Automatic annotation (TrEMBL):
Residues 113-223 form the Metalloprotease TldD/E central domain. It comes from Nostoc edaphicum CCNP1411. Residues 21-83 form the Metalloprotease TldD/E N-terminal domain. InterPro entries: Metalloprtase-TldD/E_C, Metalloprtase-TldD/E_cen_dom, Metalloprtase-TldD/E_N, Peptidase_U62_metallo, TldD/PmbA_N, TldD/PmbA_sf. One of its GO terms (biological process) is proteolysis. This is TldD/PmbA family protein. Residues 232-474 form the Metalloprotease TldD/E C-terminal domain. Keywords: Hydrolase, Metalloprotease, Protease. Pfam families: PmbA_TldD_1st (PF01523), PmbA_TldD_2nd (PF19290), PmbA_TldD_3rd (PF19289). One of its GO terms (molecular function) is metallopeptidase activity.
Length: 479
């Protein structure tokens, strides 16, 4: 691939200030079983390249699904023509310094290759999961799925960049629906599609898999006779699988620099955060430390370089409660005059890279799970996201969970069903009073973060310990 791309770059005869080629090959599989019956067995392959051209301070783009020299040359000419035509109306002039030369590679860690099990063997495992989930006749539906992706990308540029990345990822999901008369409850393994990681098929069968599968089925039945979550203000304890959504929606999206600049207002909304808030805004309590970290081994959105070649490094977005920098690519950083990160990412070869989340993690502090619960006289502990609602400025939100426990005098007591909570983003993060330690820090991921026009669904990862928030409004009822 390298020789062909170098040849292509050398062949361009257009007076551009800078040219980049991002070529991508991606193979994905999806297996889904419902009620022990296979429903989906799919495999897809896609290949293509995005050409990016800088002319007179303006960037132009064109994609092609052919890696032939003539097709890449034609795409480069199209991108050049677009950039030249648009340069009369640019809102900010870009320079070659926004696309510095970089050379390197990144490969996902893995033990077992993605083809180490046959489709039949994977289906047999998913069927067994469904059978094991059905612990009671009140389980009316079971579901289990597994998806894999192998993605290779090559990035070359006219100023000498050469980056190769190979990412192997796997996502698993299983859950049940339980019913007793008019009462219906759902329980899944950490919420919808949260168990997504980089690695191989060794991630398909975790050490405690069958214990966890049975537990999910048993908890669904348990919820049918559980008390409704009370309506009150109390201490709220969130498990890491719910903290994943909390970080994503109320920290990640509000500090995307392109949203703050208004680029996403037509589709994904804006933000309550302003440009002058960086370095100044007290986003939360001093216990709040959020990092952008694509360097975590095995986390779902890890990489060595973003899709424009910027080197990925760990950076504090919020440190001791104060907002430090935004989720913004090199061009967003110069437009806004705000420090950002290596987060220009594209969902495929036929999409331009835009400001995206990657791995956003809440750093651990101290306190085992037992210590955290023991220090609470009254509260509610919640796991696994079930529903979410947040306004387009990412300010007011209401989230629901699948499973909850009442906390009384330092102990988990009654199971509660239909637990929900609501707050505003600043109020909520200022109420953070306890952050767990590394023993209860867990990471999750999802492939479904949507943004951009045309839409781009992309992978993100989030890690967090168990956290305690004081005086939060919780309530029951299905949402």
């Amino acid at each position: 691939m390298w020789s062909e791309l170098r040849k292509t770059i050398a062949s361009f005869d257009i007076p551009a200030d800078w040219i980049g080629i991002r070529a991508v090959k991606e193979t994905s599989t999806t297996r889904l079983v419902r009620d022990a019956l296979p429903q989906v067995n799919g495999k897809s392959f896609t290949v293509g390249a995005m050409l990016e051209v800088l002319v007179n301070g303006c960037l132009g783009y064109a994609a092609t699904n052919s890696l032939e020299l003539s097709s890449l040359q034609a795409a480069a000419q199209t991108a050049y023509n677009q950039a030249l035509a648009a340069s009369e109306w640019w809102i900010h002039p870009f320079r070659e310094s926004e696309r510095p030369k970089v050379v390197g590679e990144y490969k996902s860690p893995f033990i077992e290759s993605l083809d180490s099990l046959s489709p039949g063997e994977i289906n047999d495992l998913l069927v067994r999961i469904c059978q094991t989930l059905k612990v009671d006749d009140k389980i009316v539906q079971t579901i289990a799925s597994a998806s894999t992706t192998e993605k290779e990308s090559w990035f070359v540029s006219s100023n000498g960049s050469e980056v190769y990345q190979k990412i192997l990822s796997i996502g698993t999901h299983y859950g049940v629906t339980a019913q007793d008369g008019a009462i219906v409850q759902q329980r899944s393994n950490n919420g919808s599609q949260a168990n997504c990681y980089q690695g191989g098929l060794e991630l398909l069968q975790q050490e405690n898999l069958w214990h966890r599968v049975r537990q999910i089925g048993e908890q669904a039945v348990e919820l049918l006779t559980a008390e409704e979550c009370p309506t009150t203000r109390t201490n709220l304890v969130l498990a890491p699988d719910q903290m994943m959504l909390q970080i994503h929606e109320s920290v990640g999206h509000p500090i995307e620099i392109d949203r703050i600049l208004g680029d996403e207002r037509n589709y994904a909304g804006g933000s309550f955060v302003n440009k002058n808030d960086f370095g100044n805004l007290v986003y939360g309590s001093p216990l709040m430390n959020i990092t952008f970290d694509p360097t975590v081994p095995g986390e779902f959105a890890s990489y060595g370089f973003d899709d424009t070649g910027a080197v990925a490094t760990k950076e504090y977005l919020v440190k001791e409660g104060v907002l430090q920098r935004g989720l913004g690519s090199l061009e967003s950083q110069v437009r806004a005059g705000v420090a950002g990160v290596a987060c220009a990412r594209a969902s495929s070869w036929n999409r331009p890279a835009i400001d995206r989340m990657a791995n956003l993690n809440l750093e651990p502090l101290n306190g085992t799970f037992e210590d955290i619960i023991a220090g609470i006289e009254h509260g509610v502990y919640m796991e696994s996201n079930r529903s979410w609602s947040i306004d387009d400025r990412r300010y007011k939100f209401q989230f629901g969970c699948e499973y909850a426990k009442l906390i009384e005098n330092g102990k988990l007591t009654k199971t509660l069903r239909n637990p929900n909570y609501r707050a505003t983003t600043p109020e909520f993060w200022h109420s953070l009073i306890k952050v767990g330690d590394a023993t209860n820090w867990q990471m999750y991921g999802t492939p479904y973060c949507g943004k951009g026009e045309p839409n781009q669904a992309i992978s993100v990862g989030h890690g967090s310990p168990v956290c305690v928030f004081a005086n939060v409004e919780v309530f029951g009822g299905g949402v």
